Amino acid sequence: MENNSRGLNRLRTLYPFVCEDEGFPLPLYWSSEVKFYFVSLSENKLRVTYKGYGKTQLDAVSVKATRSIPSSCGLYYFEVKIISRGTDGYIGIGLSADEVDTNALPGWRENSFGYHGDDGKSFCSSGTGQPYGPTFTTNDVIGCGINFIDNTCFYTKNGLNLGTAFDDLPLNLYPTIGLNSHGEIVEANFGQSPFVYKIEDDMRELRARIASVILNYPIPDKPMEASIQSMIATYLVQHPQWCDVPRSASSASSSSGNASSDSSLSDVASSTCSSSSSSASLLTHFWFNRNFFHVSKDSRRKRKADDT
Predict the structure, then answer these.
(1) Do residue 297 and residue 163 come from a single domain?
(2) What are the phi and psi torsion angles at 104 (to 5°)?
(3) Are residues 171 and 225 in the same domain?
(4) PROSITE patterns, alphabetically (predicted)?
(5) Residue 67 and residue 165 in one domain
(6) Cα dihedral across residues 278, 281, 284, 285: positive or negative
(7) Tens digit of pLDDT for each residue in 240-269?
(8) Which residues lie closer than 8 Å to 135 by C-beta, 6 or more apart?
(9) Which of 154, 236, 270, 302 has a 20 to 30 A CA-CA distance from 31?
């Protein structure tokens, strides 16, 4: 129980912008809804063993994670350790949509993407692969990452980034593992334990890049600038953990009239976002947090209604 709690806390640190309103939305285990008797899951649902004979491609099977990857992750990553390559090492690691059937390696079917260990090729919705990376075998650790900002997928091998494998990806993809020869065993790490690859460095770099783009985006329209500033300040009052927002500002804004509220909120926005570090953290949070954009849309609708 303690290890499970520690694992969830680690995931919250990796993906701080994922909303937990409807339970924990991240992939945690392989799905136990496997339709093939020759595939078995360990008790913790992280290790998959192929017990079939794998004579042809018709004997291939894929197992998906319990949940799809939320785009609010910004950058998502998981790793798979090859415990045993089995007889032939026909192992595929990648992503697939919910509707993709599970009697093929990832990448062979439409809306599925995979990197295969026997030939090092990448497969994108096709049975024909493209040269991508090295082959992999027993004791290798293969990572798969999806960057929702650039809309790309990349892989790693034993802690080394192999570069972009796919782009123009659809949403709501599931981590997927495919097996096709006797004795293959793989074990997943969805982030509950430290990764071999230093994905945290990539995450920090991506968030800094996004924050820089937002901070340097020109806003020539002064009324719009004031409106955005007010909107940010309103959010800050409700979520003071992102900047050192005085609690008094919250009560002041709620007890004053509209004009004075806008003024105090603007003061809060300008004072709390004066440092580049807090601005970067705050604006990156805005970028990923869907609730903020919902608030923004509601505010625009209300403003439009007031104008009419």
Answers:
(1) no
(2) -160, 160
(3) no
(4) B302_SPRY
(5) yes
(6) negative
(7) 545 544 444 444 444 444 444 444 444 544
(8) 89, 117, 118, 119, 120
(9) 154
